[in-house]
Specification:
mainly alpha, single chain, rod-shaped
């Protein structure tokens, strides 16, 4: 089960990275409104990825703790 949490966190990190790259491209083309919207989306993805990573870490600790008993 812990693997699923880690996989989801990795997917969210990829979404955030993609949105950041897209925002940078639009900013470079002076399409600031779209760049700003993509930057906001990237931040939301990054926040979700961070939360998912924390959850995966907590689940891993639970699994490690129960296997040591």
């Amino acid at each position: 089960m812990s693997q699923n949490f880690h996989q989801r966190a990795a997917e969210l990190h990829e979404l955030a990275a993609h949105a950041h790259r897209s925002a940078a491209v639009h900013h470079g083309k002076e399409d600031h409104l779209t760049g700003h919207e993509l930057s906001k989306q990237a931040m939301e993805h990054a926040t979700n990825a961070f939360r998912s990573s924390q959850e995966a870490h907590q689940e891993s600790e639970k699994a490690d703790g129960s296997s040591k008993r």
